Amino acid sequence: MTRVWKWNRPVTVREVLEDLQQERSIAYTTVMTVMDNLYQKGWVRREAEGRAYRYAAVSTRAAYAAALMNEAWQRSDNQAAALVAFFGMMSPEQRDALGDAMRVIQLPAEETREVPAPPEGAEGAEESEGAEEAGEAAEEQGSPEPAQDSGAPSAPGAAAELPESEGGAAEAGGGR
Question: d(Cα 94, Cα 38) in Å, to the nearest integer?
Answer without folding.
Answer: 30
